[in-house]
Amino acid sequence: MSTTRRRVVATAAVALAGTLLLASCGDSGSGSSDGKTLKLWHYEGPDSAMGVAWNAAIKEFEKTHPGVKVKFEEKGFEQIQKTASMVLNSNDAPDIMEYNKGNATAGQLSTQGLLTDLTAEATKRGWDKKLSAGVRTTSQYSTNGVMGSGKWYGVPNYAEYTMVFYNKDLFKKYGIAEPTSFDELTAAMDTFVAKGITPLANAGAEYMAQQYLYQLALSKADRSWVDSYELYKGKTDFHDAAWTYAAETFADWVKKGYISKKSTSTKAEDAGVSFIQGKSPILFSGSWWYGRFQTENKFAWGTFLWPGSNLTLGSGGNIWVVPKGAKNKDLAYDFIDITMSKKIQNLLGNKGGVPVAADPAAITDPQSKSLIANFNTLSGKDGLAFYPDWPVAGFYDVLVSETQKLITGSEKPDAYLSALQKAYDKGVPKT
């Protein structure tokens, strides 16, 4: 979620202001280990599919490692993103940590020498065989920190992708059928606006707004366009047809009332709660919400892939990384292994996650089957296009601030795209 996350995880984390900053100062005994404690950090909500599965993995780990205890600390997503470099460069680094994947995050840490090379373990334990090529992309980073090749610095044990979540009860109330084309989607939104309802839940203060815009661009793009933007395999022009269409359409959607101008200060959690409470009929976001919606939605709801596009945002999930300064690396490798086991993978799948190594026959929940089937459809057609903030360090904050200006109307699409071009060009590795 991030950088991309654009995820603020749903029920998530106690935002303990300054927790990570304080960690750099050290706490008693945190800099050494007796080999009987695994220090684990992650930011998944306890009711999310990943949170449930990883809690089960902790129990399994302690069961198979008598005398060893897992010291779990729940962190906020934004906390880890903003202070990871400093914390991992201190004596207080955890043994294993969930971290955001991509060039600007895990790639950057790998070039700073802060992450352990997991290549040998990935081969020895068969993690490389369990991950499909598309999911594996975010596990490996070159010497320049570019994903897709090189050494293994992380392991995802789930996948993620974006989709349109919609409130079936509200659609039925206003006589709207499930959209099967882009024109039908916009027609549905016109109907809601006519009834005084803002159709799209949005979060301008975090990842959600930029992901709407990126999806609009993807609907006019192809794989080579994505590779140029994300992997530097060509020139990226923010004034090309895809980006121009996206910025102009997004601005037009604000004018039409599909997106509220007041959403500039809204966070992802606010947008998710708006959907859960039945206030917003449509939310475009990631599979990380799925388990929570299964638990908390009190209305009939469904999902569909963004109509009229072969590409959507998605990738392997956030990755397990082992800090270079971890005191118990072997224990960390064992924990990763458990999260990749059939038992934990099957549980993750039945709780609304997208497992990477589950037994398909073991996934019995109908909604979960649909979630995984849509992912397989995307993966099968090479439809995962990563996330907009990944290419360069600091781009997430640029996208947030610039997209807020697009929502308020204080910046026109052309100026918006020029601002993105400037920040992108400044950050692209010089070869």
From TrEMBL:
<keyword id="KW-0732">Signal</keyword>
<dbReference type="InterPro" id="IPR050490">
    <property type="entry name" value="Bact_solute-bd_prot1"/>
</dbReference>
<protein>
    <submittedName>
        <fullName>ABC transporter substrate-binding protein</fullName>
    </submittedName>
</protein>
<dbReference type="Pfam" id="PF01547">
    <property type="entry name" value="SBP_bac_1"/>
</dbReference>
<feature type="signal peptide">
    <location>
        <begin position="1"/>
        <end position="23"/>
    </location>
</feature>
<dbReference type="InterPro" id="IPR006059">
    <property type="entry name" value="SBP"/>
</dbReference>
